[in-house]
C-alpha cells in the first residue's frame, strides 16, 4: 500500500478497478452519510461479489425490520466483539452504540465488561445469550431460549439475536485474520 493511503488490512488486496457504478454509488452514499467509507467495505472491494454478499447480510442483520432495536443489535455486536477482542468491530460498533444511545460511556462499558454495563434486565438476558453463543455455542439449550422468552423476546427475536451474534463472530474472525483496521474517524465519533 502506498504511504499516503490509510491501512485497511495487512493483506494487499487491491480494490476492483474500476468500481462498478452501483458500488461507486454505495461508497458515495457512505461518504455523504458517514463522512467516510468504512474500511471493511474497502477491504471487501477486491471482489465485488464478496462485497455485495457482505453488505447484503450486514444490512439484513443490522438494519432490517426486527423486534430488536438498532441499538440492541449494536450492543450485541460490541459484546461479541469484546469477547473476541476484535479491534475493528469494537471501535466501529462502540462508536455506533455511543451515537444511538446518546451515552458516551455505554459503548466503552460494553467493550470493557458487558456484565456490569447499565442495561435493562431484558438487554442483559440478550447479551448473556449472545455471550454464551460466542463462547460455548454447543451448550446453548432450551433453558437459555426460555430465559429470553421470560424477558419478553419472541422466537423471531431469538432468531435475530442468534443471527446477529453469529454474524459478528464471523466478521470478527475475518477482521482479526486480515488485521483489518478501523477508520480513524471512529475513534472520535459521539464523544
List the defining traits of the structure above:
single chain, 191 residues, mainly alpha, Single alpha-helices involved in coiled-coils or other helix-helix interfaces, AhpD-like, 9 helices, 65% helix, globular
Record the SSE blueprint.
Blueprint: H1 21-34, H2 39-44, H3 48-63, H4 70-84, H5 87-101, H6 104-113, H7 121-136, H8 142-150, H9 155-178
Helix pairs in contact: 3-9, 4-5, 4-6, 4-7, 4-9, 5-6, 7-8, 7-9
Structure description:
The chain has 191 residues and is mostly helical. It has 2 domains: 21-63, Single alpha-helices involved in coiled-coils or other helix-helix interfaces; 70-188, AhpD-like (Up-down Bundle). It has 9 helices and no strands. It has helices at 21-34, 39-44, 48-63, 70-84, 87-101, 104-113, 121-136, 142-150, 155-178. It is globular. The chain starts with 20 loop residues before the first helix and ends in a 13-residue tail after the last helix. 34% of the residues are buried. The mean pLDDT is 93.
Amino acid at each position: 500500500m502506498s504511504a499516503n493511503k490509510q491501512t485497511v488490512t495487512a493483506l494487499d488486496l487491491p480494490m476492483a478497478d474500476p468500481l462498478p457504478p452501483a458500488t461507486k454509488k454505495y461508497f458515495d452514499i457512505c461518504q455523504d452519510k458517514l463522512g467516510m467509507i468504512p474500511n471493511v467495505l474497502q477491504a471487501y472491494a477486491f471482489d465485488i461479489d464478496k462485497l455485495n454478499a457482505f453488505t447484503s447480510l450486514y444490512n439484513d442483520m443490522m438494519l432490517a425490520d426486527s423486534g430488536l432495536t438498532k441499538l440492541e443489535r449494536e450492543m450485541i455486536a460490541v459484546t461479541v466483539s469484546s469477547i473476541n477482542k476484535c479491534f475493528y468491530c469494537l471501535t466501529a460498533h462502540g462508536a455506533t452504540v455511543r451515537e444511538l444511545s446518546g451515552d458516551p460511556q455505554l459503548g466503552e462499558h460494553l467493550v470493557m465488561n458487558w456484565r456490569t454495563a447499565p442495561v435493562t434486565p431484558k438487554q442483559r438476558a440478550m447479551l448473556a445469550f449472545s455471550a454464551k453463543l460466542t463462547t460455548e455455542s454447543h451448550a446453548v439449550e432450551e433453558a437459555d431460549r426460555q430465559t429470553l422468552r421470560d424477558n419478553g423476546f419472541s422466537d423471531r427475536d431469538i432468531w435475530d439475536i442468534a443471527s446477529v451474534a453469529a454474524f459478528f463472530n464471523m466478521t470478527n474472525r475475518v477482521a482479526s485474520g486480515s488485521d483489518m483496521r478501523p477508520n480513524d474517524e471512529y475513534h472520535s465519533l459521539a464523544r
